[in-house]
Write a structure and sequence with these properties.
The structure is a single chain. The longest helix is centred in the C-terminal third of the chain and has 29 residues. Strands 5-6-8-7 form a 4-stranded mixed beta sheet, with helices on one face. The protein folds into 3 domains: 42 residues, Pemi-like Protein 1, Chain: D (Ribbon); 69 residues, Translation Initiation Factor IF3 (2-Layer Sandwich); 196 residues, Phosphate transport system protein phou homolog 2, domain 2 (Methane Monooxygenase Hydroxylase, Chain G, domain 1, Up-down Bundle). By secondary structure, the chain is an alpha+beta fold. It is flat and about 90 Å long. A hairpin with a 2-residue loop joins strand 7 and strand 8.
Length: 345
């Protein structure tokens, strides 16, 4: 029985002298890792429906309680920010920082920077020895497909900015903003996956009706993270030392092809099509080879520009696109609604 279409009817059974019982769907019980003797908690809604979920394990954090970080002091730059980002990504709504020694101005600014870099997070309490950050995002409002589409738009913007930087002397003012926006969306994507892995009803609401798809989504997010890094490097190298049009070794054309391929592979992820996924996979393989060949032909003054590093980064990016195409292929095959003919070489 598929998880997405379980039987909606269950016969009421007699249990003992005066009790009745209803069995649980096997896929749901397996997904929740339930065993005989485990506890289930439920809430009754006003319309008579019941909401069921496994009881929290002994020692588990109480829902709504802040994630508490206590230390004598925080002196190493970056530690506080990474703690906040990590707590956000794994699903904590409230994060409380406590110290014995008052936080200095630099560490306070670090916490404010962490809040600015995460969607929906604000500092709600600030004292010399205590800071509380709160997330106000409703996870059910952010579907996985919509976030992936947003990430695609950011990556396309990186490619477009890289194309404009070719042969241009003025430095880009957009790269910092694009990188910051990309990091926000990626952090929210990871957070959504963590939350969905603990609540299958949320998983269905945000676009993953089958719990097994969460593994696919994690691969997708990891590939998007790598693409964000890679395309940021491409734009950064061209921003640092752009080659002239006569030196670009076909990079301008390659950036346009990469943009088209990226759009195609994300579309095949969102709307699984075997033929489109096959084309996207073939295109990502071709782009990787094109970048490798172009890099081998960079000579003379062009080697002192950002062109070699940009081409090497594009080659890595094509590998990440290939991973996305492979997931799209898996989804299309799983759907099992299409047959194509592949010509032998």
């Amino acid at each position: 029985m598929a998880w997405g279409q379980p039987s909606r009817e269950r016969r009421v059974l007699k249990a003992g002298h005066s009790s009745i019982a209803v069995t649980l769907p096997k896929p749901w019980a397996e997904a929740m890792n339930l065993r005989p003797g485990d506890l289930i908690v439920f809430d009754q809604n006003d319309d008579g429906t019941l909401y069921l979920k496994p009881a929290p394990l002994p020692g588990a954090a109480v829902a709504g309680a802040p994630y508490l970080v206590q230390a004598r002091s925080f002196e190493t730059p970056g530690v506080l920010q990474r703690l906040v980002v990590g707590a956000y990504r794994v699903g904590h709504d409230a994060i409380e920082i406590r110290t014995e020694q008052p936080l200095g101005a630099e560490r306070m600014e670090e916490l404010h920077q962490a809040a600015r870099g995460l969607l929906g997070v604000s500092i709600v309490a600030q004292e010399p020895n205590r800071v509380v950050l709160q997330n106000f995002i409703d996870p059910s409002k952010y579907g996985l497909p919509q976030l992936v589409q947003r990430m695609k738009m950011i990556l396309v913007a990186f490619l477009e900015e890289s194309g404009e930087l070719l042969g241009r002397r003025a430095r880009s003012r957009r790269l910092g903003g694009l990188a910051e926006e990309g990091n926000k969306v990626l952090a929210l994507l990871v957070r959504q996956l963590f939350l969905a892995s603990r609540d299958w009803s949320l998983a269905r609401r945000i676009g993953s009706p089958d719990p097994r798809q969460l593994l696919e989504w994690r691969v997708v997010v990891h590939a998007l993270e790598e693409l964000s890094v890679v395309l940021g490097e491409v734009a950064g190298e061209l921003n640092r030392a752009p080659p002239s049009r006569s030196q670009d070794a076909g990079l301008a054309t390659m950036l346009e092809e990469f943009k088209s391929g990226l759009k195609s592979v994300v579309d095949s992820l969102m709307r699984p099509s075997l033929s489109q996924a096959c084309e996207a996979y073939a295109e990502s393989t071709r782009l990787a080879e094109s970048a490798r060949a172009a890099l081998a032909h960079v000579k003379g003054p062009a080697r002192r520009t950002g062109l070699p590093a940009a081409l090497a980064a594009l080659q890595r990016g094509a590998t990440s696109m290939s991973i996305l195409a492979q997931v799209a292929l898996d989804r299309a095959v799983s759907a099992g609604t299409e047959t194509i003919l592949v010509q032998a070489p």
